[in-house]
């Protein structure tokens, strides 16, 4: 029976963590993969017991998780602490067109800025109505029908 190197086992375990992170993004498994690769690196340099291997794995995973998670999350997901989640879309009035009727309290759809957005309104708005974009909350825009004031 052939013996499999512990370095190879830890390296492959790291690869499994990285691939699983790609499939199920939680941004925790990445750090377990880093811990497994740190353990493989130590084992490549010296021979240590399984208990010491587990300690190296846990410590390196936790240290990288604590020190790098918030920084890497801002790199990959953007830094949301610099702006409020509920922001005005533009300082200038923007308009869109209703593509799916909006019937409060439900959602409709609006074509705005070359994209389709889910939309809410305080009043029912039929399809093909030109609307003013009031506010954006995440991926939902709040709209109202565009009213053209007549000057007499």
UniProtKB/TrEMBL annotation:
Subcellular location: Membrane
Keywords: Hydrolase, Membrane, Protease, Transmembrane, Transmembrane helix
GO annotations of cellular component type: plasma membrane
Residue ranges occupied by any NfeD-like C-terminal domain in the UniProt entry: 95-143
Pfam families: NfeD
Subcellular location, principal: membrane
Keyword set includes tRNA processing: no
Superkingdom, taxonomy of origin: Bacteria
Molecular function per GO: peptidase activity
Membrane topology: Multi-pass membrane protein
PANTHER family associated with the record: INNER MEMBRANE PROTEIN YBBJ
Descriptive protein name: Membrane protein implicated in regulation of membrane protease activity
Species whose genome carries this gene: Candidatus Electrothrix aarhusensis
